[in-house]
Structure formats: structure tokens, C-alpha cells
Design a protein that fits this description.
single chain, 250 residues, alpha+beta, Creatine Amidinohydrolase, five-stranded antiparallel sheet, four-stranded antiparallel sheet, 4 helices, globular
């Protein structure tokens, strides 16, 4: 069942989103060459807890960490290992969830370490733009397929591919709620969007094939051809016009 949120519930999600935006500010200040993923994981957990909130990912389906850190050919769910070190030229998706006052917020940011190859820089730019193209059509009265199609159309117009086996999703009292939202598809298809629906929209865009593999750690997902990938995400609330982005600082 797809839950349309009440005004008090949306306000609770705003509070979770505000905390998450502040956590990303702290991550951005500390993301540099030589830093380890484990350090960033601890930093995020400490920061989240300083606001009286809880990391959404910690313990989720047995996950033992507070954030996911996915570098280069890693698409999503990268484990923040102590030996995962940031080097010049890397890109990294940092995916974080916050649980506060009964509601979740979920978002991911892409960090770059110079010097960045121009093709990689373009991948990051297009991936972030895919999210905002989705927002352009994410309004009450449109359909879920409009979001999917906007992401796919923009990514493929620049020669990139859209991961097919992972999805955007609903969010609220649970980290993952209905509906699952493909990041590809045909416009004017599927569920009619209503005010108060809340989604985590997360384009996952690859340079090469859209096929993916899961590593033996059973979490980290990489591209099958090991070409690089980028992942960007925000939690949004559907309105009659442009959606409210709950996980961005205002």
C-alpha cells in the first residue's frame, strides 16, 4: 500500500531531512585525499546521534555500518572498510539515512577528488541532473512513469546507461516503502502521483553497461564491466507543483 503523508508526518520528515543535510555538510568538510571510508562512517554516525537521531542503515537487513560509500566502479551499497582510502581522481557516492521522530530521510551525494577525468566529471554532472529532471515532472496528476522516463531520457541522451536492477522507492515510517520506482521506463504510465506522497529518487548511472554484480561481501554492487558509475539521491514530497526536496538545505 502506498501511504500519502499527512501534514504532521511531512513536517516530521522535514526534520529528518534537515538533520541529514547537516550531516552531509560535515562529510563535505572532511572528504579529502587520504581519508578512509571507516572514518567517514564513524563521523556520520556521531553527527547523526548528536541530533538525537539514529542512522537508518545501521542494522538494516543486518548491515553493520551507518552509511554506504561507493567508489568509482561501485554503484551502491559500498561498505565503509578501513582500507577504503580516498585517492586523487576518485569519485564517491556517500549514501546516508536518518531516522528521527518516527520517520526516515534518505539521500546520497557524489564527491570528487581532483584531478577528475572529463568523462567522469560529465558522468557526475549528468547523474545529478537526472534527479532534477525527475523533479520537473514529479507533481500531482502526473504518473510514476514520467519520473522514470525523465531519468532515462536525460542519461541516455548523453551516452550513459541507467541501472535496471535497482530502484528509487517510497519512504516514510519505513526506509523502503511502496512503490518501487524504476529509473527507466515510458512516460504517462503507472501510478498517478498525489500530493503528500514521499519518494527517495536515486538515479544510478553508468558509463558502460547497465548490468551489475554483487561482490562476495553480499552488499557492494559494482558494474559488470567495471566502468565507473555515479549515484545521487534525495527524499522528495509530491505537491501540486515542483516537489519539496526534504533533504537539501534551504
Amino acid at each position: 500500500m502506498i501511504n500519502t503523508k499527512t501534514l504532521p508526518e511531512i513536517e516530521a520528515m522535514r526534520e529528518s531531512g534537515k538533520i541529514l543535510a547537516k550531516v552531509f555538510d560535515v562529510i563535505a568538510e572532511n572528504f579529502k585525499v587520504g581519508v578512509t571510508a571507516a572514518f567517514l562512517d564513524t563521523l556520520a554516525k556521531t553527527t547523526i546521534e548528536s541530533f538525537g537521531a539514529t542512522p537508518s542503515f545501521l542494522g538494516f537487513s543486518g548491515y553493520a555500518y551507518s552509511i554506504c560509500i561507493s567508489k568509482n566502479e561501485e554503484v551502491v551499497h559500498g561498505i565503509p572498510y578501513p582500507d577504503k582510502i580516498m585517492f586523487p581522481g576518485d569519485i564517491c557516492s556517500v549514501d546516508i539515512g536518518v531516522y528521527y521522530n518516527g520517520f526516515h530521510a534518505d539521500a546520497a551525494r557524489i564527491y570528487k577528488l581532483d584531478p577528475i577525468d572529463p568523462l567522469i566529471s560529465k558522468l557526475v554532472e549528468v547523474t545529478e541532473a537526472c534527479f532534477f529532471k525527475a523533479c520537473d515532472v514529479a507533481k500531482a496528476g502526473n504518473r510514476l512513469g514520467d519520473i522514470s522516463n525523465a531519468i532515462q531520457t536525460h542519461a541516455e541522451s548523453h551516452g550513459f546507461s541507467v541501472v535496471r536492477d535497482l530502484y528509487s522507492h517510497g519512504i516514510g515510517r519505513n526506509l523502503h516503502e511502496e512503490p518501487l520506482i524504476p529509473n527507466f521506463g515510458k512516460a504517462n504510465r503507472g501510478l498517478v502521483l498525489k500530493e503528500g506522497m514521499t519518494f527517495a529518487i536515486e538515479p544510478m548511472i553508468n558509463i558502460g553497461t547497465y548490468d551489475i554484480l554483487t561482490l562476495p561481501d553480499k552488499w557492494t554492487i559494482i558494474t559488470r564491466d567495471q566502468k565507473w558509475s555515479a549515484h545521487y539521491e534525495n527524499t522528495i514530497c509530491i505537491t501540486k507543483d515542483y516537489p519539496e526536496i526534504l533533504t537539501m538545505a534551504k
